[in-house]
Design a protein that fits this description.
- There is one protein chain.
- By secondary structure, the chain is an alpha+beta fold.
- 40% of the residues lie in helices and 10% in strands.
- It starts with a helix and ends in a 17-residue tail after the last strand.
């Protein structure tokens, strides 16, 4: 048996503790190797009434719309035979990405999600001609989006997310607008 396989370091009688395959030591801290191998996506441990409105009222209606299917996943320029797409569209976005970011709490404010939703439509209008079917589909979907925006909340109080196991819907509680003492950081202004 080799010294490495047995855990011996070569020093007489001393055993060196090896890191497991799942964790690696980094500057004195143990960091899961998955975090070291994949880019870290910043997530927040809160949501807002606007983010909840977008996720539960706007995205659900858009997702079920008969014209949504072309916007549910990222444009595959090779598959669609449009090699110049990424030369024209510099900031691609799709509703599937917006949905995933909402579900994973990757937005800090509702306006960030709205910007991404509008970017989906803007990219479609930028690349396609007004007489294209996809352009008309985006226009119709945008009309549905704007009609739902009439009920968009006026202000954005923060809600803390109580962490729950995967597959279980999280519950929320409203953080009082007069204190920030229970907030980890002032990520959004409390109104």
């Amino acid at each position: 048996m080799s010294e490495e396989a047995s855990g011996n370091s070569g020093a007489a009688g001393k055993r060196v503790k090896r890191s497991s395959s799942k964790y690696e030591a980094a500057e004195g801290n143990i960091v899961p190797i998955e975090q070291r191998l994949h880019p870290v996506i910043k997530t927040f441990d809160f949501t807002t009434n606007r983010l909840q409105f977008i996720q539960h009222k706007i995205m659900k209606v858009l997702w079920k719309n008969r014209f949504c299917w072309p916007f549910q996943k990222a444009v595959d320029a090779d598959e669609l035979g449009i090699p110049d797409y990424y030369n024209v569209v510099k900031n691609p976005m799709d509703l599937g990405t917006v949905k995933r970011k909402l579900e994973n709490f990757e937005y800090q404010m509702g306006d960030e999600a709205l910007t991404d939703i509008r970017l989906v439509f803007d990219n479609c209008f930028l690349y396609n001609k007004p007489d294209d079917d996809i352009y008309s589909m985006a226009k119709d979907l945008e009309t549905v989006f704007e009609s739902k925006m009439r009920d968009y909340p006026d202000h954005e109080p923060e809600h803390r997310i109580l962490k729950t196991p995967a597959g279980v819907k999280p519950t929320t509680k409203v953080v009082p607008a007069t204190t920030t003492s229970d907030c980890d950081s002032a990520l959004i202004p409390l109104l």
